[in-house]
Amino acid sequence: MQLPPALCARLAAGPGAAEPLPVERDPAAGAAPFRFVARPVRFPREHEFFEDGDVQRHLYLQEVLMQVADAPEKPRVPAFACQVAGCCQVFDALDDYEHHYHTLHGNVCSFCKRAFPSGHLLDAHILEWHDSLFQILSERQDMYQCLVEGCTEKFKTSRDRKDHMVRMHLYPVDFRFDKPKKSRSPASVEVPGDSGERSEGEAMEICSEPVAASPAPAGERRTYSHRSVSKLFLKHVLNVCSVLRILGCTWAAALLILNSER
Amino acid sequence: MWSRRQGRLRPTVCGVEELRRRRREQEPRDLGSGRPSHARREQQLVSKRLLREDAPEEAGEGCVAAILGEAEVQQFLRQAQRGTEEKEREGALVSLRRGLQHPETQQTFIQLEGSMRTLVGLLTSNQALLQLEAARCLHELSHSEQSTIAEACLPATSYLLTYLSGHSSDFIELCLYTLGNLIVESEAVRRQLLPQGIVPALAACIQSPHVAVLEALGYALSQLLQAKEAPEKIIPSILASTLPQHMLQMLQPGPKLNPGVAVEFAWCLHYIICSQVSNPLLIGHGALSTLGLLLLDLAGAVQRTEDAGLELLACPVLRCLSNLLTEAAVETVGGQMQLRDERVVAALFILLQFFFQKQPSLLPEGLWLLNNLTANSPSFCTSLLSLDLIKPLLQLLPVSNVVSVMVLTVLCNVAEKGPAYCQRLWPGPLLPALLHTLAFSDTEVVGQSLELLHLLFLYQPEAVQVFLQQSGLQALERHQEEAQLQDRVYALQQTALQG
Questions:
Q1: pLDDT band for position A260 (50/70/90)?
Q2: What ranges does the record list as Basic and acidic residues composition bias (chain B) (predicted)?
């Protein structure tokens, strides 16, 4: 199939429409037995016209899914410990550390050190656990927000909220991020690694009852700036990690570099 | 930009034939409507089956994973849950994951009481690496083609969705692929995921800056959109969310366009558009304009020979444009209908040439768009003539009967606009080409040739003489007994003889 040479030039040139030639139809054109009518064609989903293209698509997906299913080769580095105070987790792969950091130190409540999978859940926790204004308001109006992304319903009690999440959103009754509060000092650090009496793994929690002992005025709620400090730390650490990866340095060599810069 | 795809594509010749063979075995052709039932679903199942059959031989760790018995599964779970050493716990889950590559182990796992509960507990633990390995185990289970296995994973879905709003991009990517796989296998899973808020979760997640996350999200969304209940139960809420705008953003050509991501979202758009739920809404979001510009970009990429995997993106873009052009809303958008730009025709022909050389099976899709562009547009018909594209179009006639019919249809679109158009079609290669197609045995090809001849004779009567001189009557006679053709053959014979 040979295209005219000027075609590429036309593509490269600016937009524009051809001045149409005059249209002049003769009624005999559509007269029987001839039946041609110019019309755009629509193909609905599942139409067999799509078979060939769909086959190509599925072959491509096979390739992608196979790459995802094979666990990635993690580049290893000499073992190093997480630098966050109180965390003594040790790693030998930067990807592992990254996941650990995001999971355990990324959304941490500065009041009680509990970690949450998302900022959304952390915010809800802080409100419901550590904000005395919330407690006051909740006596008069519905304050317990549904935890499901996109749902704006609010409830009088955490119990009502749980019922809503189970009934309307088909969430499990024992959803781990909506457990009642355990009686434990809010200042205790969750140290990963102490298995102790943990049954199915300590989960991050939002509780349904507030900690009466720590009256944090709404203005001070922003002391969960631990999160933003963590984010800055994370940025610094991960930037260093990225640079190291690119340079192919070992962790020890990197420390040498950092130390020598001081 | 496009060459990045090269490494991911493998020779697919054997795979294609295998897929087609299985598809035809499974697919009960409904000759009445011509619509194969369950065709798309079966294809998806077939794709997954091929994936899992290859995997054990490809286990890269040097040993082939063994099928695990009930006792072993229990032991690994217990070790993961209660082991004292971090590495020991992680190792137990790795061993479990390898075993779960086997369907037998998957069955054993789900039949074991408390196994999913334990796995979900590990998935939600504060031990990040255990969490990751538990998610990988779940991902293995999601590869199963048994809907019972997918349904056994139901207790985990609320957590998978919760983790989509986290920050660990690798983990989010894994959760998305897992969700996508589960969505394919079971309507029960989809029935749970919708009230659990999968659509808002995806709408939030689509703002991630990570390319791998976006690609995974596109995959999961594309699986959701292919569900049989999607037009009624899923697409309306997706159209009501911010997802369409984000999807279109990711299809805008420019330095930020990522091919892998664009492919996924182009397919998502195709599934939405061909379901015909509310296409005017998408037109209102600028879908026509974005896709038109993307088409130009694709043609540019072909010219720069950065064409590896390009058809993966071209195919859904062509489909979206073609279907959108059938919407009445297209006419009322007014001056913003960018598809008046004749560069679209130029781009389309560049792509047709590319398909002709590399992927002839996609020629019908390109010609479909050409039909929809030219059917009601004197301007585009004029472009075909002024850009000298009739001859290249005729060169496609020998490819197949389907392609021939479509080429002839496009030519009819031009010819039916009247004498000014037919004058430009003759003299030239058109009449000889028509005499050639009249020799075909396929009724549809011949029928369309007769329609075109009729228009040519009507608007360009000088053509009749030349037709007669070149044994046109004999060519017609061949078909005068054919039921579907005889009326038209007779009418043309009369015209020729009177002319």
A1: low
A2: 19-32
Could B387 and A4 be called an inter-chain contact, meaning their C-beta atoms sit closer than 8 Å? yes
**Shortest CA gap A36–chain B (Å):** 6
What do you get for the CA distance between the two ends of chain A, in Å?
67
Task: Select from B55, B325, B353 the Cβ nearest to the Cβ of A3.
Answer: B353
8 Å CB contact of B143 and A64: no
**What is this structure's pTM?**
0.82
Residue B46 touches chain A, beta carbons under 8 Å: yes
Q: What is the pLDDT of residue A105?
A: 86
- Helices B211-225 and B198-205 cross at an angle (nearest 10°) of 150
Best residue in B205, B217, B343 to probe A by mutation, most A CBs within 10 Å?
Answer: B343
What pLDDT, on a 0 to 100 scale, did the predictor assign at position A75? 74
Domain annotation for chain B: domains and CATH numbers:
241-327 (no CATH), 340-498 (1.25.10.10)
Are B372 and B326 in contact, with CB atoms under 8 Å apart? yes
